[in-house]
Amino acid sequence: MPKLVRDRIPELFGGQATPLPEAAFRAALHEKLQEEVTEYLESGEVEELADVLEVIFALAELDGLTPAELEKARAAKAQARGAFVRRLWWTPT
User: pLDDT for 32-48, tens place per residue?
Assistant: First the structure.
């Protein structure tokens, strides 16, 4: 079954590979993100979490952001809204 793969996969395992145009690449990244999140949730393995991050970095790049700029946006939101350090489960009233 054809799917989006990391750049070196064809070199390592063979098969045919063709670059996708931007719109198709973005759609494939959305599918890949779901796949990688599911794999992480099922396994809990750090390597799967790293795969999630790789897909997120690729999506950010399509939006013109470097990993550093994405981290800056994450940090700004954490400063404004907090992070998940306190492990809060909220019930609105």
Answer: 999 999 999 999 999 99
